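Hi there,

I know you've been waiting on this one. I reran it after we fixed the sequence typo, so this is the corrected version. Both the input and the resulting structure follow.
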Amino acid sequence: MTAQHEVAGELEVWIDQDLCTGDGICAQYAPEVFELDIDGLAYVKPPAPPGVEAELLTEPRSAAPVPLPLLREVADSARECPGECIHVRRVADGAEVYGPDAPE
């Protein structure tokens, strides 16, 4: 794993598509992590090696690792999401650190 793909303190992100508004703010902040699919909803995608297209994780509650260089963008996406549907949690204990269920 290269430094570019190091995971931020073992954090992962997932999107609740039932609440997604399809606004696309997340894909604007971090297109390497979020993408709108043909249904107009946002999904996460795991880091991919350079030159390889990452596959969208379309199963409900699918989570992707948060690459360390993109932590700020992913956190900002969770804060700015109008649907409040982006959840960032620690892998170790499942505690939400950014998103609608994170402690203030």
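Quick highlight: The chain has one domain: 3-98.

Best,
R. S.
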